[in-house]
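Record passed on here:
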Amino acid sequence: MARIGTKNHPSVGKRIQIPAYSDLWMQGARFGTIERVALAKGNYVKAGDPRGADIFVVKMDHPQVKRLCRFIADDCQYLRES
């Protein structure tokens, strides 16, 4: 099934910390801003199947990361706004 990318999702524009298991996190790029949300479509038999999860498309704060990165939404943490 196809994913639907949306810029109208309530999470767009929020700041997050990416998951610690990603290579970018281990290289020092830990924070970013959500640009788009790819909503999952379809039913998957296995509960842990990543194709059934929503995906955040994130613009990283680190100056060396130029491209948008994709992360599973459930693995990211929102940052508190101060």
